[in-house]
Amino acid sequence: MSGVCAPTGRRAFLCCSAAALAAMAGYATGQNDPRRIQLSARKFEFTPAEISAVAGQAVTLVVTTTDFAHGFSLPDFELRGDCMPGRELVLRLTPRKVGRFGFVCDNFCGEGHDEMSGFLVVTAG
């Protein structure tokens, strides 16, 4: 005998249950959740106009609007969605490239539409 006691039967069940509860507690507290980045879209701007992320780390973009059906397009990451008034547009992304990447509104929203843009800045981890 090596002196190490490997749990069996009920003891094994209790050990596994404790490990599972500990893992679920971490999930419930948001430790495993991606970072949420809030954006608001309105004629003719995104706020904030510059957001940041770390390469390899998941983020959730949450875009809201109150005035118009705006589009959100981040072409370098092939990410796109429509943002409707009163609803959240939720987009998930794990950037793998480092750099400064433009995002735009791709639903024509009036005379200032061409200026409705911003940047995602991705830094190394």
Descriptive account of the structure:
This protein is of the alpha/beta class and 125 residues long. Helix content is 16%, strand content 41%. The protein has 1 helix and 9 strands, in the order H-E-E-E-E-E-E-E-E-E. The protein has one helix at residues 9-28, and strands spanning 35-42, 45-47, 50-54, 59-65, 70-74, 79-83, 89-93, 99-104, 117-123. The strands form 3 sheets. A 4-stranded mixed β-sheet has the order 2-1-4-7, with no helix packed on it. It has a 3-stranded mixed β-sheet with strand order 3-9-8, with no helix packed on it. Strands 5-6 form a two-stranded antiparallel sheet. The termini are far apart. The relative contact order is 0.21. Mean pLDDT is 81; it is low at 1-6 and 12-30.
What structural keywords apply?
single chain; 125 residues; alpha/beta; 4-stranded mixed β-sheet; 3-stranded mixed β-sheet; 1 helix; 9 strands; 16% helix
Rg from C-alpha positions? 22 Å
* Helix and strand composition category: alpha/beta
**Helix amount:** 10-25%
Average residue pLDDT: 81
Strands, total number: 9
Q: What is the overall shape?
A: globular
* Order of secondary-structure elements: HEEEEEEEEE
Annotation field: number of helices: 1
Q: Report, as a whole number of angstroms, the end-to-end distance.
A: 46 Å
Strand fraction? 35-45%
Largest beta-sheet characterization: 4 strands, mixed
